[in-house]
Amino acid sequence: MFAVLALVSVCGSTGFAQADSGSAEDAEAKTEKVTHAGNVPVNDVRQALFDKRRTAVIQFVHENQPEMEKLLLALEQSKPTKFRAAINRIEKAQGRLKSLQKRHPERYAASIERWKIKSEIELLTARASNSDDQQSAEARRAEFGVLVGAFIDNRKRMLELEQEQLQRKLTRTERLLKSIESDREALVEKNMRSIEKTIKQLKSGKPVKK
């Protein structure tokens, strides 16, 4: 029972659950409308969709937080409804992380590390709240200290990456400003020629290239 309570605590408190992408529940609701109209067993389709999502989430957790995987599987057997809710929450976290993977690989790696550290802190917090926990207060504090230190270091890394991104943007902006300041008349003339060319194309009936 403790394992189940620990997982419910983790999945309920993790900040990564608040992704702004479309929810899995909405997707299932839309599917239900379509399949009902086509006389396809709705429950079968919804279960198939959930099974696919479950597989992806379990794989993600297996790769990044094996202890949570064990708790998820225990929750699946004892509390299916809470297991489904946990899968939905973790899937949203996974989706937000994946959105960074191609655009910002370094931030993606740092975000994965943050998720791992945060979930481990939450698992340890759940264990510490268990009345049967025999770990000494000193040992527990030391374990928390290591994790919190890692979390702070990760936060520093995330801020450094954000700073680098902002610096690159600032550099581009400064370059454009200098270009306008030094070649304003040339830029005006260039844009005027573009407008004149567009007018000619419109008069000739040719499609305007954008």
Task: Explain what the structure shows.
By secondary structure, the protein is an all-alpha fold. The chain has 2 domains: 2-116, no CATH class; 135-210. 83% of the residues lie in helices and 0% in strands. The chain contains 8 helices and no strands. It has helices spanning 2-13, 24-37, 42-64, 66-78, 80-101, 105-128, 137-182, 184-204. Helix 3 runs antiparallel to helix 4 (66-78) and helix 6 runs antiparallel to helix 7 (137-182). The longest helix is centred in the C-terminal third of the chain and has 46 residues, at 137-182. The protein is elongated. Mean pLDDT is 80; it is low at 1-6, 12-23 and 31-37.
In sequence order, what are the helices and strands, one letter per element? Answer: HHHHHHHH
Give a quick account of the main beta sheet: strands, pairing sense, barrel closure: none
Total separate domains: 2
- The average pLDDT score comes to 80
Judged by helices, strands and strand pairing, the structural class is mainly alpha
Helix content: over 70%
Low-confidence stretches: 1-6, 12-23, 31-37
What is the terminal separation in angstroms? 63 Å
Number of strands: 0
Strand content: under 5%
The gyration radius over C-alpha positions equals: 26 Å
Gross morphology: elongated
Count of alpha/pi helices: 8
